């Protein structure tokens, strides 16, 4: 009798029928199973025949699937046409699965009830099927940050309920479709509030028909496309507009005076076009806070008097716009004004910035004008004035004035502070949370497309953002312990980019339910940032740390059993054994899932061109033009891989282009890997990647141009200037910080593998920047703390331990850095005439003697007569870095601290560079209302995700 009870019980347990409600409809089950045939890495709970009850990340209404939410689950493969058979599906979120590739199937058009379709940050390619126009219920469409090509389907104009249209960061080309006759177009989307179409290759004119008084748009973002023709005056009819970005196109003709009637526009970017004539009087735009019209082809014009009436203006950028004459002093009295950049104009006369108290003004950049006098009575301390390249700075004795020096924006090292605790050391890929717990955070970047502030130094903004994120996670019951924000930077699109780390609560990692919940919160704009941050999108990194997450439903059963049974110990033991057996069976099934080959990029890149945020794709023609057909005059370097060229973009920006030789070209996979790696790291001591060209059998990487060339050239005397002791320490510090960032803050950590003086570049202020990640390898694929790999690197800098064992760790970079430290004081190549610098120094080292007995070996240009304060400590540090055993070498962060101490000891401020510059002040808003403030992304318009609500 008891035996039978147990048997029945076990059967029940194994089928989970204790918690079953309604069985999933057969057609939905079949569709899901077919979808799984083209997917890898589906959630481990996706087994069995009752998805509605047993599978995570799926939500049903009765027996039909209404929501699939697989954001950030590591899903790979393609989306098959079987999706079209889920007849009741309302929400499909596949965001942030970078290995989800291929086209969107035509059958997606069968989903008559679909209201939310999100694939942001995946690897989809191919054109958008016209059938998308059949989704009559669609409200929210987010296809941004993929590799879609072809034209924007005109049929999108049929989506009469559409509220959110995000097509940005793809490779869409051709015209913006508008209706004509029976053919639909975007002009019919009267409910749409958001057209986010930046960073594509859209061409042709902006059709005047696109805009009418019936449109209710608040954000029109078409920046960084190839649009031509003039700005249609019909834009002035869309009275609801709050943000307009038409910058970085090929727009010509005059700015239509009619846009002056756009009374709600707060941010307007028209920069980097070919606009002509003169700017009309825009005094009617009474809440305009940011205006950027830089780099256009305007006629010569006087500084317009009406600008002095723009009471809301906080940020004005009119660089290279042919402005002439004198700036009216009353302009600087505008109450909200914070940043004014009028570089490269013909402004003349006296610069009088008045004396108004309580002014918000932080930066006036007037470099390269004709100003001959500065009257700054009263405001000296709070306003940074830049006048280099003006008459006033040419007078003798003036060049030493602060306002005559050039300064560059400093990189912002902000990071959410630790919460009254000391972080300990975390293992391999774990990171300390703000609460000092080590775990595997979910990471990505928040990209704000038109923030109303740009005082990136003011951490109040980040604290507010942090709190609102935490509130949102808590409100939606997501398993989040804490959140860290770091490294705010403005990217080449003028987007504010912030790194986000989300740490799990109670565990050291998230399971898929956790990441898909967080992903959805950010992908469908459930989370709304504080108003000053404006329109945004989130892009998640791969999350590679899903553990063997417990099957939640098994856990429930355990509780039910425990509560129901009790009594007989034998019975309990037997049941536990049964549950264990079931659990083992599940585990076996899961193991099979895990063994599915993970579809990596390499299988897909042969055709796919990488498309990344922050890194722009350049066409071959564009690069050819800006290097004057790769002329010899523009060659600035050469190496085994090919040549490096200097180029000038149409907007005047100077770039460096690394062009691979045919024979040294990497596979598409390596090339993409390199781009992905480079575009992810942003630090002032790392050379940043601006873009790439992958076309016509060419592989080129486009970097920021670092004007003073390599440290190697400087040490060899080629560059023609000398480095004193303090400067050398500062260069060492810069390089160390760059490396420490790669090792300890990049996610995943990056080992450089080829540290050498060739790869340390110097900017105009001699700050060091680490370059060339060509041989880098991120640690993403390793479980342990080392990578077994083919030995690469440069003789002389190569870590002997790595060479012997082929096991690469960060400590190999530390070795190379140690050699670099020696090179920095000796100005000798690591191996010169058969002599190895490390050995030479070791042999000569005698701490009892002056300069440690190294006098003969040191670089004579270093002024050895003066006291080199901290020299012995420096040599000790270098020797520690080149210890035989990696374990005995310090970590880069310790090296950074040591060098900082050396600088302090020598009486120099290790942070002097960044502290003395404040050019990152561009705007400094004090909450004068933002685009989002009046917007209601009403709950009715965007269906809340049932999965999230039930969590
Ligand atoms: C400034 O430039 C304007 C126009 O180019 C010219 O008419 C004026 O005389 C100049 N003023 C001074 C003080 O140089
Ligand atoms: C930072 O920004 C906040 C909010 O806009 C403002 O209230 C505060 O005064 C700013 N702080 C500084 C130091 O400028």
Backbone structural class:
alpha/beta
Uncertain stretches: 1-20, 549-575, 580-611, 775-788, 914-951
Task: Report the average pLDDT across residues.
Answer: 82
Task: Please identify the top-level CATH class of the domain at 706-949.
Answer: Mainly Alpha
**What is the fourth-level CATH superfamily of the domain at 706-949?**
Transferase(Phosphotransferase) domain 1
Beta-strand fraction estimate: 15-25%
Termini, distance in Å? 40 Å
Main sheet specs: 15 strands, mixed
Please tell me how large the radius of gyration is: 30 Å
Percent of residues in helical segments? 10-25%
Output the number of helix runs.
Answer: 19
Strand tally, please?
A: 49
Order the strands across the largest sheet as they lie in space.
2-3-5-7-9-11-13-15-17-19-21-23-25-27-29
Name given to the CATH architecture of the domain at 706-949: Orthogonal Bundle
The CATH topology of the domain at 706-949: Transferase(Phosphotransferase), domain 1
Shape: globular
- Distinct ligand kinds: 2-acetamido-2-deoxy-beta-D-glucopyranose
List the helices and strands and how they pair.
Layout: H1 2-15, H2 26-37, E1 39-40, H3 51-54, E2 58-61, E3 64-69, E4 76-78, E5 91-93, E6 99-102, E7 116-118, E8 123-126, E9 140-142, E10 147-148, E11 164-166, E12 173-174, E13 194-196, E14 201-205, E15 219-221, E16 226-228, E17 243-245, E18 252-253, E19 267-269, E20 274-275, E21 290-292, E22 301-302, E23 315-317, E24 323-325, E25 339-341, E26 346-352, E27 363-365, E28 370-375, E29 384-386, E30 431-432, E31 438-439, E32 442-448, H4 460-475, E33 480-490, E34 496-504, H5 512-523, E35 536-540, H6 552-564, H7 569-594, H8 602-605, E36 616-617, H9 620-626, E37 635-639, E38 642-648, E39 654-660, H10 668-680, E40 689-695, E41 698-704, H11 711-715, H12 725-744, E42 750-751, E43 760-762, E44 768-770, E45 777-778, E46 787-788, H13 800-805, E47 807-808, H14 810-826, E48 831-832, E49 835-836, H15 837-844, H16 871-881, H17 892-905, H18 912-916, H19 946-950
Parallel strand pairs: 3-5, 4-6, 5-7, 6-8, 7-9, 8-10, 9-11, 11-13, 12-14, 13-15, 14-16, 15-17, 17-19, 18-20, 19-21, 21-23, 22-24, 23-25, 24-26, 25-27, 26-28, 27-29, 36-40
Antiparallel strand pairs: 1-4, 2-3, 30-31, 32-34, 32-35, 33-34, 37-38, 38-39, 39-41, 40-41, 42-45, 43-44, 46-47, 48-49
Helix pairs in contact: 1-7, 6-7, 12-14, 12-17, 14-16, 16-17
